[in-house]
Design a protein that fits this description.
The complex is a heterotrimer.
Chain A (H helix, E strand, L loop, with lengths): L14 H16 L7 E5 L5 H4 L4 E4 H10 L3 H11 L7 H14 L15 E4 L4 H14 L3 E3 L10 H27 L5 H23 L10 H6 L13 H18 L9 E5 L8 H10 L2 E6 L17 H12 L5 H14 L4 E6 L10 H12 L3 E5 L10 H23 L1
Parallel strand pairs in A: 1-2, 1-3, 3-4, 5-6, 5-7, 7-8
Helix pairs in contact in A: 3-5, 4-5, 5-6, 7-12, 8-10, 13-14
Chain B lengths: L8 H15 L1 H12 L3 E4 L6 H6 L3 E4 L20 H11 L8 E5 L3 H13 L5 E4 L8 H23 L5 H27 L6 H13 L2 H17 L8 E7 L7 H9 L2 E7 L17 H10 L15 H12 L3 E7 L3 H16 L4 E6 L6 H16 L4
Helix pairs in contact in B: 1-8, 4-5, 6-11, 7-9, 12-13
Chain C lengths: L1 E3 L11 E7 L3 E7 L5 E8 L4 H16 L6 E7 L11 E2 L2 H12 L5 E5 L4 E6 L5 E6 L8 H11 L6 H5 L13 H13 L4 H23 L5 E4 L6 H11 L3 E4 L5 H14 L4 H8 L8
The chains are: A alpha/beta, B alpha/beta, C alpha/beta.
């Protein structure tokens, strides 16, 4: 293992989040004894459909990140392997279905991830794999599944957008709500949904201010700090303390900006991160970054969590939820991403693009080559495409990454000289 | 192993024609276009409403993988994408699809979503479009109005490309022609079932593949010549091991592998592949408004598709029932490597077959060369497993 | 784990049959006499010319029993080079033969894991020793005998040293790739980080065990489990696999010869008309050279 030569500046305010998640997960684990219902949610949007109704909810990518960051995937992958999943199958599917099957088959799991089996599966997926995951989970656990089509394909016109919102809202009303009512045993509480949404909106406004601060040199946080802070948009939606967390988070970042403190000491390279955060790789990749005084300033995936605050309308929660979802899905499309990246290069003064691609996931990696090409042509900013995975280490080669990453930074140096010269 | 039946010249000629067509669709389509002076629109396989394209007078063709190694596409798409998606990009970038007047994509899988971006940005092919065909069909009543909205959108797009109005009557006319093709292909399969030694698995798949590339009227004519000739031929006893093939839900199978299965002493008695029985399994209801008819076919849950989500489908049961219905002795799963929808369903298929003691072999196929020697061993072992009468 | 031997007996019944397994690295021959006893066996390098290897191994076995070529009643060829055993009466795949050989050695076995020079197979047998299902790696040499040879060479070790050495491992080292090329570069970078050889060996064995476990899962594990093929001689892989599969493995004394033994057993069954139906069934195929 390579030694850490430079130390990252930790954010004090983020510590609350780790504790809040641990407490929340403990609550989920206690659900059966406390007579509470548990929902396994698949996709970024829509968790508040159930969290606001007192149904304890865990979300697939969040659990996978938790498992990946703590290196707990061994038992889970062994179970999914025993189930017969091929190794290049969606790593989130292997994690989430593996977790369920471990419970069904009575396999002993590490206590932190020993969640109760679902009473309900709710999927408002962004991709085919998420839909299938819901289908498989439902078959294997016997829990009913809400599988909703948020229409995850590129929106071209206003007409498209409106039709998609209409379709999604109809599904929420006619498919999701009746099923949630059936499982919870009471009428759907729209007031509670509105309340949760209002809290989330406050968080989103503060969060967007945090993101804007990243334009400063040095950037006050890394993208992964932002990633840790996303729970208020998924399982902690509407929970007490989340707004206060974002207030403290923003204040700490503003303080850093005022004092000229960066997340990475002597920030030298400002990079963009495509794709999901690969939590399982962050140890290795993070060390490489910090040792070269490189920071991930901005990225694609963490911005898919309710970025358009003007669309969050607690007065009209279902319609608003549908609008937010359809709008958020644009991050998945290479057309949009290509424009967004070019925009970010200017806005956040970026030096290069890191483009991880996972052989188990197609969500973000379509068109990566063209996105890099477009950015090179317009700004002369280079990109590095490399293979990795959110959870499965088998798709990442540390030695190869290090060599290529260093060569990539050398390319950036050469480009900077050329631009100056 | 050659077929046991001596076939008349007309049959051999037709088989030769479809073989050549499937082997080089590029030349066939260029020639067709030059002869007919009509536009050609390519679509992703499986669910696109081809009848609507046909009704404009343009030729709809379903995309196919090339016979060649992928070269420049690997600078545009990842190597871990399925062979078809990489091949389409490669062909487009190499200028091999210059005869196309448009390409229609829809969200059949994750890979399909990004292809139009890459092709539009890097090739001069006109009219690259993406349309939404809902991937979840569990609640048909909720889905149908939205699906129809999207079909109307496709109609507008076709009117723009073809430069003329597309009437319901014209679509109904095309539906009739397509349904006729489905009936003729069903007849072909019935004939093969009675007399499996009549045609090789490759030949059957080539005939179906031709339907995906030819004007349907021309393919109907071809089948009308072929079928009576085949039906006249004597039934020959065949003691080879009977195999049911499942997989390749989207594009044509590897024809060399189809040959290999039969060269190893087995015979394919039925299949559930796209360029096979899946191609003509469902017809469009001619008694309703054509857009309704097309929507109803799309939402028909009797033919599950791994890219369409229907939480009432049990894949293991579905394949097991198909296997029993055709009297086969073993199942071969043809999995296109990096096809997530299939590999996710394979888990249940495999489990159910094993539970019922049905011999099964998984063959993962890549666009690139497979290890034929290793494959031969596995096919032989499957045959030995079945022949040694394992109960 | 437990082991079982393959004693060579004197010929008691003169109708001798042969099984020849031409593998990618080694060629193996086993003779059985009319009473079904093993009367000759040998293992030689396959080299570049499989046909010659088959001839040599066969000739060597003939010498052992003092018989002429014409005295051999029936010969079955198997293995990667089975088509090159030109004097064989029949070709049977190594999958069926490994199953049959393992069943003879360990009648209680239902799952066979065979890791040879170039490929890995997992076989499920029924109570009669017949093939129920199998998987076989389809492309590269990831995790096979050849893979271990390359890794040993990279570390400057003899292939036989890796197993015992790995048992001394104290620290977990993760090897992520089983691709021969990538794993080699990973090992070199672990060297650069001063990782101990025993930890690297143990990491490699864990990576292999995890891959094998994945294949076993495809077939489903049924007690008891036999491991055959050259890699079964590596105690490190065996121990790791036992932990991963949560079962003890049965290991033949000479794990490499199981395929040839199975081929000889099938030859014996055919020659003795014990399983007429097998003979009849196999005759229907294009591969039967009798017809």
């Amino acid at each position: 293992m390579s030694d850490v030569k430079v130390k990252r500046n930790e954010l004090e305010s983020l510590k609350w989040m780790g504790k809040a998640i641990d407490e929340y997960f403990a609550e989920v684990r206690r659900a059966p004894e406390e007579g509470k219902k548990v929902c396994w949610h698949i996709a970024v949007p829509g968790t508040l459909m159930t969290t606001s109704q007192g149904i304890l909810t865990i979300m697939h990518a969040h659990v996978a990140a938790y498992i990946g960051a703590r290196h707990l995937m061994k038992e889970v992958f062994e179970v999914s392997e025993d189930e017969g999943f091929l190794s290049n199958t969606c790593c989130y599917m292997r994690t989430f279905v593996g977790l369920a099957m471990a419970k069904v088959n009575g396999v002993k799991l590490p206590p932190q991830i020993d969640f109760p089996l679902p009473d309900l599966i709710n999927c408002m997926g962004e991709c085919q794999e998420q839909f299938t995951m819901a289908e498989l989970l439902s078959h294997k656990t016997g829990a009913p599944a809400i599988i909703i089509d948020p229409n995850p394909s590129g929106c071209v016109t206003k007409e498209d957008f409106d039709e998609r919102v209409k379709y999604l809202e109809k599904q929420l009303k006619e498919v999701a709500i009746p099923m949630i009512e059936k499982v919870s045993g009471h009428r759907y509480d729209y007031a509670a949904l509105s309340e949760a949404m209002a809290v989330m909106k406050k968080c989103a406004i503060l969060r967007n201010k945090c993101v804007a601060l990243q334009a400063h040199r040095p950037a006050p946080m890394t993208l992964f700090d932002l990633g840790v802070g996303l729970a208020p948009f998924i399982v902690l939606q509407g929970k007490p303390g989340t707004v206060e967390f974002y207030e403290r988070f923003l204040a700490e970042l503003e303080d850093r900006v005022a004092k000229g403190i960066g997340a990475v000491p002597d920030e030298k390279y400002r990079l963009y991160w495509d794709n999901y955060t690969m939590w399982r790789l962050l140890g290795v990749v993070g060390r490489e970054l910090i040792n070269h005084h490189a920071n991930i300033v901005i990225g694609r995936y963490p911005l898919a969590f309710y970025p358009d605050v003007e669309l969050i309308d607690p007065e009209n929660p279902l319609h608003s939820l549908a609008e937010c979802n359809v709008s958020m899905l644009k991050t998945l499309y290479p057309h949009w991403a290509s424009e967004m990246v070019n925009d970010y290069v200017e806005k956040f003064d970026l030096d290069g693009l890191l483009m991880p691609a996972s052989p188990t996931c197609r969500m973000f990696d379509i068109g990566q080559h063209d996105i890099v090409d477009a950015c090179e042509r317009k700004h002369g900013v280079p990109g590095l495409i490399f293979e990795g995975d959110m959870v499965d280490i088998a798709f990442f080669n540390e030695a190869q990454f290090k060599t290529r990453f260093e060569a990539f930074l050398e390319t950036i140096d050469a480009r900077k000289k050329w631009r100056r010269g | 192993m050659p077929v046991a039946v001596k076939r008349p010249k007309i049959v051999q000629d037709i088989l030769g024609r479809v073989e050549a067509l499937g082997d080089d669709p590029y030349q066939f389509l260029r020639d067709w276009k030059a002869r007919n002076d009509r536009k050609i629109i390519a679509c992703l396989p499986m669910h696109f409403p081809l009848e609507m394209i046909h009704a404009t007078g343009m030729l709809p063709v379903e995309m196919w993988p090339s016979n060649e190694r992928i070269t420049i596409a690997h600078s545009y798409v990842h190597v871990f994408y399925c062979g078809l998606s990489r091949s389409i990009v490669d062909d487009a970038l190499q200028g091999k699809l210059e005869f196309l007047d448009g390409m229609y994509f829809y969200d059949q899988c994750m890979q399909a979503r990004g292809l139009p971006f890459v092709i539009e940005r890097n090739t001069p092919i006109p009219n690259i479009e993406f349309h939404h065909l809902p991937p979840i069909i569990s609640n048909p009543d909720v889905v149908k109005p939205h699906l129809k909205w999207n079909l109307e959108k496709i109609r507008k797009s076709l009117e723009r490309i073809s430069g003329k109005a597309l009437s319901d009557d014209a679509i109904s006319q095309s539906i009739k022609i397509y349904n006729k093709n489905r009936k003729l292909l069903q007849r072909l399969y019935r004939t093969r079932k009675k007399n499996p030694g009549l045609l090789r698995a490759r030949e059957i798949a080539r005939i179906v593949q031709a339907s995906a590339l030819m004007l349907k009227e021309e393919h109907n004519e071809l089948l009308e010549q072929l079928l009576p000739e085949l039906e006249k031929l004597p039934v020959v006893p065949d003691n080879r091991v009977k195999i049911f093939i499942v997989g390749h839900f989207c594009h044509p199978p590897r024809f060399d592998v189809m040959d290999m299965i039969e060269d190893e002493g087995m015979v394919v008695v039925d299949d559930d592949i796209y360029n096979g029985a899946r191609y003509f399994a469902l017809s469009v209801n001619e008694d309703v408004n054509p857009i309704d008819g097309l929507a109803d076919k799309f939402l028909d849950r009797s033919l599950p598709c791994p890219t369409r989500i229907d939480n009432e489908v049990n894949w293991g049961q579905y394949v097991k029932d198909k296997f029993h219905a055709c009297g086969a002795q073993g199942v071969i799963n043809l999995l296109a490597k990096y096809c997530p929808p299939h590999q996710e369903r394979y888990v249940d298929i495999k489990r159910e077959l094993a539970r019922n003691n049905i011999p099964e072999l998984l063959i993962e196929l890549e666009h690139e060369a497979v290890s034929l020697e290793g494959l031969k061993t596995r096919l032989q072992a499957l045959r030995e497993q079945i022949e040694m009468g394992v109960k | 784990m437990s082991q079982s031997g393959l004693e060579v007996a004197k010929i008691s019944n003169k109708t001798v049959v042969a099984g020849i397994d031409v593998g990618s690295l080694y060629t193996k021959t086993v003779f059985l006499d009319g009473d079904g006893n093993v009367v000759a066996k040998n293992i030689i390098r396959s080299g570049a010319i499989y046909q010659g290897a088959a001839e040599n191994s066969f000739a060597h076995a003939l010498e052992q029993v003092g018989l002429e070529r014409g005295d051999i009643g029936y010969t079955v060829g198997t293995g990667y080079g089975r088509a090159k055993v030109l004097f064989a009466d029949k070709e049977i795949t190594e999958i069926t033969c490994h199953g049959r050989g393992s069943h003879w050695l360990f009648p209680e076995a239902h799952t066979i894991i065979d890791i040879g020079g170039q490929d890995t197979k997992v076989i499920w047998l029924n109570a009669e020793g017949n093939l129920r299902n199998f998987v076989m790696n389809d492309k590269c040499a990831a995790g096979t005998g050849r893979f271990l040879e390359v890794m040993a060479a990279t570390m400057g070790l003899g292939i036989e040293q890796m197993g015992p050495l790995s048992l001394l491992s104290k620290y977990n080292v993760e090897i992520s790739s089983l691709c021969t090329v990538f794993a080699e570069s990973e090992i070199i970078s672990l060297f650069a980080q001063s990782c101990a050889l025993e930890d690297i060996c143990a990491g490699l064995h864990r990576a292999i065990a995890s891959r094998i476990a994945g294949m076993v899962a495809q077939v489903g594990i049924r007690e008891r489990v036999v491991m055959s093929g050259g890699v079964a001689q590596n105690i490190g892989v065996v121990k790791t696999l036992e932990q991963r599969l949560k079962t003890s493995l049965l290991i033949p004394d000479e794990p490499q010869i199981v395929g040839a033994l199975g081929a000889a057993l099938i030859a014996w069954e055919i020659s003795n008309g014990k399983q007429e139906e097998i003979k009849a069934a196999l005759r229907s195929t294009v591969f039967d050279r009798e017809a």
